[in-house]
Every structure is written in structure tokens, then in C-alpha cells.
Amino acid sequence: MSNSLIVPLVLWGNTPPTHRISAITFTPDFQSVITGCRDGQLCVWDVKDGDISPKLLIFGHSSAVVSVTSVKNDVLIQEKRSHFVSVSQRGEICLWDISDGRCLEQNKLSGIPTCIVGQNLMINNELKQCVLCYGQFPEILILSASTLSTLLTLNSRIYPDWVACACVVPGKSVKDVCDIVGLTVSGMIKVWRLPPNSTSHTLYEEESRQVNYTNSVDVKISEGDSKVMLIICTHAWQVCDYVDCSLLCYTASKPGQSWNGGGFISDDFVAIWSKNGLVQIYKLPFSSIDLFGSQEYSLPPIIKLYHNKSNGSLNFITGGYGASVSLNEVDVTSLNLTQSVYSSFVKLWEGLDRKPAGIIDQLSHDPREPCHVTASLFISQYCYLCCGREDGSIVIVPAAKTCKANLLRDEFANRKGWPPHKTLRGHHDRVTCLLYPHQEATARYAPELLVSGSADFSVIVWDIMAGTLLHSFHTHGGEVYQLLVPPAACNQRIRQSICSVGIDHSVALLNLRDRKCILLASRHPTPIVTIQWRPEEDFLIIACSDSSVFVWQMETGHLDRFEQGQVAANILAACDEKDRLDNKAPDNSVNISQALKHRNIHAFKALAQQGLKSIMDGLDEQDKNDAETEEQLHVRHDLQIPSNDSDSHIVFFNTESLIAKLLLEHSSRTRKKQKSGDRNETSTSTGKAMINNFIKQQVSRRSKKSSSLLEVDSAIDIAQLFVSCLHAWGMDPSIDNLCTERLGLVMPKTSVCFGLLSHKGHMSLMMPRRITGTVKNDNGNHHWCISSSLTTQHLTAIISIANTMMELPNASFRSKIKRGVFELNLGQTNFSQVKQSWSLLATLHCVLLPEHMEGLDYKPPKLEFLARRWQDRCLELREAAQALMLAELRQIGAAGRRRVVEGWAHHIPDYVDPQAPPGDPEHSTSPASSSMSPEETGERSSINSEEATAHHHHTQRQSVRRRHATAIVILGVIGAEFGQELEPHYSLARYTCKALVYLLLQPPSVKLPAHIPIRRAAIDLLGRGFTVWEPYMEVSAVLLGLLELCESYSR
Description:
Protein name: WD repeat-containing protein 7
Keywords: Repeat, WD repeat
GO cellular component, one term: cytoplasm
CATH architecture of the domain at 361-578: 7 Propeller
CATH class of the domain at 361-578: Mainly Beta
Number of helices: 25
Shape: globular
Organism: Ciona savignyi (Pacific transparent sea squirt)
Largest sheet: 9 strands, antiparallel
Strand content: 25-35%
Distance between the termini: 25 Å
Number of strands: 50
Radius of gyration: 31 Å
CATH topology of the domain at 361-578: Methylamine Dehydrogenase, Chain H
Helix content: 25-40%
InterPro entries: WD40/YVTN_repeat-like_dom_sf, WD40_repeat_CS, WD40_repeat_dom_sf, WD40_rpt, WDR72-like
């Protein structure tokens, strides 16, 4: 029930990111706008006080978002919040929480969808929140808005064809028979009738009629008694009778103008808009035309019409190509424009008092106009960040120090040349790509080699230790935009090479050892989209954008064959299948460096699911070698296409790894002190030994200095940056003073933009926001008001770090500063003061924060998230989650705990069902004994994640089991700590006790290992609330089960 706690943080840079809007929707409460873009991102915009401002940017899809729709999802316990659904060109459909951008569910559709619509439908006499989906397939899918599984399929018997547009016929009541109208691309109208008591999973059309309305883009049915149908085609729009499809009104578009959508304003008025953003209102049949809005767009804007019945207005939402959203409000009666609001990313950046910092802005000649970063690479071995800039230079800088200089009010930030860095100069145009081969193949490449590609057509090999240029390759006839490492199965000559891809459609293999080009594959007619390797056959396979495939021999450099059509597709499919079998676990460094650089969201998801390579594989053992090589901080460049986009960087803090590294550094220092003390005792009488020791220290220090001019960031540097960003500044001035004076924390320059990782590796990032004069203490309170999920993550992280620092002797960030390097002050005089300060910091965030946030929109931590960490494998995270959960249960009081019990009571599994075999893990009444999802357990699961994704029904079963396990922990904690509130519910206390005992006594198996967190949580809660559970359990069986576990553990 635990996984690595990773906290993202973003530095947006001086220029806003691109967001080319391709889909838009308005939430039913008219408080939020959701947009999807052609790069697969989603953005949530707040509509408040006559203003629109971007709130969240979500990395959700690997291809263009084709449609978004808002739904109301009441599945979550005791929560009724707005959610929305998005779908991409590749059929990826996701359910999102609008408050924090968390991905709640995900599914994959076959075919290419073009539109989704949220709708309430009666299915099997039950009102359900549904999503209608249609596109380049002959069916209309009705999906569940909560699980995204298919509830109903609308098929065609007569001339099945792709559905161009569809809508639900408005009815007087949702309990009536519902009609769904669809218009195919060949111009045929189909009507499906959905009765409320329908139990079938497939329905066929009730009526089909050929109307020859080709190139249709939208269809709408009026809500009045006289049912008329509006059909909009690119060349004309027409109004027909819904019953017999007789034509009532027809209007052709003007020359050079194409219609793009429309809708009914009332029974007498329709609104039609064109691809150039021109909205026209027609009175039927067409006695008058009212033009009220026009704007020039570089690409067709996305326009939607919504009726706001609360104030009797029409809302036209327009999404532009340049990350812009406009809201035009029209009065229904007078049809006059009453309000027009416009917002964009550029407008937000221009209105900020302090523009978001770039990652190395302070190293530019003019900080007001910094040199933009065009390529970036994080070297985890040294915690270095390599940034290629538009002037051709490459800057290497310690990652934590440069983040601290840009985010915090660091006293060193104003020093010239701070942070310490190296600058490599050799390119004559902007740097387009960077590669550190040693990070991707440790045994094959030297650790000092860095490779860079540039728009000056060159590839340069650098020595990052000495800061020198080793060799320059000039093989391409255009910009070099990608660098790759060949697979390990290639021959020795190829293994010592790297692969470069040019914009002139050429691919080169460059040998780093011999410093020469061994293969130049050029003359490809179209851009290169895929490079595949078949080292056994000595083949390099290049796929182009025209679906052609070139097969090159790597050893000889000859073109072996050229294929097109189905043969080319078969070659690529065979390569993909082989890669899937050979590389089931993707390489972290490849995923990190390439994930967002080329919009490879699948690589990013794989990275996030792995939790950035958890440092401890065992449950109770800590592998020192893994912990030493694990990344406590990771920086990734959000490089986007086109190349003039922003220099945004995302910083990942791995809390669990950071805690382990802090403890390891402390133990290492302790051992060194002990060794030096022992050495001093044995050599105090020998002056010669002391002199020799001094000479050795000077020689080693000089050799280290010559090998690398940059200091490596320590865990203390990273922890100081992390805690300084998370701390609730301004809540308590006395604690703030202790944090700065005793602990060495540094206040942020402005509000920090955090992120949130969620289901299947999706990520949402906070956008920068304008600070008004009424906002108090923005540095400390904003991220506590976003969502309960974000609050839970941040509180757990800062409390666990504070508890770790409290355990270390006099662990303060205030230290003797020597060339900017922070070291621990190990004096014992103020040990108690420092420990007390860390304790006060933890108490502020664990207990006092709700009191200080009174009057603000504070989002308390989520009990279910804390319950899943009740027995986390990391002791510090476990203690933080337990303290937070108990504090929150006390904070909500008896009434709040009663609501929690009522909300989770129906999720407790019935282990005392006489029909359920106690040892049957597959039975529905014992779900906790089955495997938990990898995202929740943090352990090795017997269920493959790919298999779970392929079988969506299995994912649903996992979700049910996860809720059951969460309910056991939550009710077990309430029963153990507040037993008097659970005892009146005799059956509930009994079921909870039986569930805990079942988890303890169930024999170890593949699906329920002996030391899985849910079993450890059951043992802990049985001990905490023994007096409460004793009447409902057999004490002797529990004792024997504990003894058996002890005996198996000792073995």
C-alpha cells in the first residue's frame, strides 16, 4: 500500500509554453474552462469575477486531444466534485479531477475517436453518468463516466459507416425513452432508441434514412415541443423536421467561408460559426442576420455554445491557436453582447509582477533578457544539469544550487558567476540535443564524454571533466535534432558509437573511440519518424513519414532494401514485438531524457510508474548500493516543438530516496570521524605519520579538484531546497524565525508552482498566478488550497523530512560556508535547540496548520491516501502518515469520524460469510487477499501492469480491492484509537476485526506475501486496538499466527 513519494516542481521560464487548442468545454457550474491541445496537453482555466486565468497544465495524452467534456462523478466517498473526460487521436480516454488534474481512470479505445459528449442516461432502470463517443468507427459507444468501461454499443444493420456527428434528443424526463441521432460521413441519418429498462449491451438503429448531407460537422435537436433538427455542413446549414427529415430552411455559406459548428439558441434562433471565428445569429427561417463577433485566427478556432439558465445568458467559448480563450456572453432576449473576456498564456506572463524564473537565467549576460535554453540533460551520477543555449554554448551547473538560486532568496544568488558552473563553447548556432552516453550504457562509454548536436549541422564530443572539445563531426546537411545510443547486442564497433539524426532526413553512426563516421544513411525522401535496430541481422531500420522503410547494413553501410505498404508495416511490427519482449522494463535514463522532448508520454508514464526506481527492493532491508545511486532530485527539460518554445524545467524530488541519502551521508560522516579518531590515537606519537597523512590529504584534494571543477550536490543541499519550498511560510512568524535562524531554511522569492503525479504516470502542473493585494502571504498558503491530494503529499513529505533531520545530531542547514558548500555543524552546544526547532516545524504542519489557515480555502489531507501509507516501507514516511491521519481524525471531531465510518462501512469485505472459503483469494468477499495494484502496493505484484491495462475489467476489480483494503485500515484505525465510537456498531466492529484477523492468518502466497503492507497494517492495528477487537476474535489463533510469522522471518 505504498509507493515512492515524488513531488514535482516546475520552473516555467520567461516565456510561456505553447498550447495550440484543439478542443474546449465549459463546466456545468460555469466556473471552469477545459482546453485540449494538439500536443496532448490539457489546461484548466478558472472563470472568476469576470476574468479567465489558467490554473493547471496537464500532461495527459501522447497525441492531439480531439474532444473534452465535463461530467459529474459521484463515485468517490463523500465527495461530489466536477470531473472531465478527454480523448485523443490514438484512442486514449481519461477521466480527470478538475481541482488538481489527477487522472482517476484511463482506457484505450480501438479506432480514432472524434468527439465525446457527457450525458445522463437511464440504463437498466438506473440513472448513470455516461459519455457518448463516436468517430472513425461504425458504432457509437456509451461509456461509464466513472470507470470509462463500455456500457452499451450502438451498432448499425444498414450500411454501417463512420459517424460524423451525433446528439441526444432532448426529452421531458430522463426516465422517458431516449433517442440518439447520428449522421454518417456518407450522409445517412440513423436513430437509436434507448428504453430505460434496456439490459442489452448492443442496440441497433430503429430508423435509417439517406439525406445526402455530406461533409457534416454538427447536428442539434431543438428543446421545444416542435422538434426540428439543425444539420451543419461545411458548405451550408439546414433545418429539417425531426420526424420525416423534410427540409424547412437552407442557407449556403459565402464563397471562401466554411461553417464549423452551431446550435439552437431557441426554437426561433440559431447560432452558426465559421472556421475563421465569425459567429452569426439567424432568425428562422432566415428573416434577419445578426453579426456580433469576428476575429482573425491563424488556424480555425474551437467554438462552443452553452446556455446559462441561472442568469439567462448565452456563453460562446472560443479557443485559439495561441493558448488563448475568450468568453462572449450574450443576452438571450435582446441578443446583444453583454460581456467579453479574453485571456491567454502570453497575457498571464505579461501581467505577472515577477516573471517565472528559468533554470539558468542568472548566468546570462543580461538577466532581464536571458539567453534561452534550447536543450537540456540531467546527469544523475553527479547531479549536474547540462543546458544548451541558443547562442551555441553549453552550461554545466549543479542542479540543486541553480534551482535554489532561482527559487529561493539565497544570499549567494546575487553573486557574479553563482552558482559555480562550466561553459563549453564550440557550436556556432543553437544547441538542439544533448546526450550523456555513460548514463544510458555505463560499461560502454567513458564517464567524461558528453555529446551535443546543433543547428550548425555539427555533432561535438566533449570532456565534461576538463571542459574541453575532443572532436567535431560534420556529417549532416542540416540541423541535428536527435542523438541515440545503439542497443547492447550490436557488435563492438557499433557499441562504441552513437546515432545522430538530422533534419535533412539523414542518420549517422559516429564512433566515439575512433572519432569517425562509420555509417551515413541519407537520401531519405521524407522526414524520419522511427529508428529500429536488429543487431542480430546487423540491420538499421529507418521509417519515414510516407510509411516507407529503409533497411541499412550497419557494418558495410549499404542499403539492403526499401519497402512500402504492408511489407513496411510488417517489418516495423516485427521490430516493435521484439523490443517488447527484450525490453519489458524500460531504461530510466532513456525515458527521462526523451519523455517530453518528443512528446513521448508513454516513456514518462513508465518512469512515473516505477517511482523513479525505488531505492529499496526488499520490505525490511535497505540496499546501500541502490540508495547511493538513487536520484533524490531529477530535472527534466520540457522542450517542445517548435524549437522557439519556452525553457521550462520540471524538478522531481524523491522523498523516500532523499531520506535514505540523508541517513547514509550521516552514517558515512560518522564512520569517517571514528576512523580519523582511531588513526589519531595510534599516530599521535609519530610526527612523520601526521606529516604523511597531511600530504596525502592535500594530494587527494588536488586530484579531485583537477578532475572536476564543480562540487556535487549533497543530500543536504537538496533537502534545504525541498523543505524551503514546502514550508508554510507566514503561518507563524516565530516558527519562521526559527526556520531561518536555526534551521537555515530560505524563503521562496514567489509562489512555487508544484505538480502532482497520478494514475498511470500522468502529471499536472500549477500555472503561475497573479498576486492581488488581498492575498496574504502567498509564499506559504497557496498550495494548501489547491486540493486534498496535493496537501496530503506535501504534508507527508515535509513531516517525514523534518523527522529525519530531527534524528540526526544537530542537523541544521545553517553551516560554515566554504565556497558555497553546505556542511553539517556537528557541535553539541545547540543540539537541543535545533531538535526542538525541527519538532516545532513538524507540529506546525501536522497539527496547527488548519488553525492558521482558518478563513482560507484550506484543503485537508485525504484519509484514504494516508491509510495507504499506514505501513509504508519507509519508516519516516510511515510515521508521518500515521501522525497526520490521527491528527486529522481528531481535527474533524466525533461527527466527522461518524461520517467517515458511514462512508467506508459498506466497503468492508465480509470475511465471515459462510459461503466464502477463508482460503479462497479470488472470492469477491475477500478482495484484500488478492493482489493490489502496483501503484498502491509499491511491492512486486503477480499481475503484470500491461495485462491489467489490456483487461479493463481486471483493473476495475483491482480498484474494488483497493477500496476494500483502504476501508479496513481506516475503520481499523478509528476502532483502535477511538474504540468507543465503533463499539455501538456491533456488526461493523465484528467485520473489521474479522478482516484484520483474516489478513494476519491467511497463509503467505504469491498474491498475499508474508510481509505485504496490508498484512503489516493488520498486525499493527490488532495490537493498537486489542481491547476493542478481543471480543470478536480467537486470541490463541492470533498469537499462533504472530509466532508463525516471527519464525518464518527469522528463517
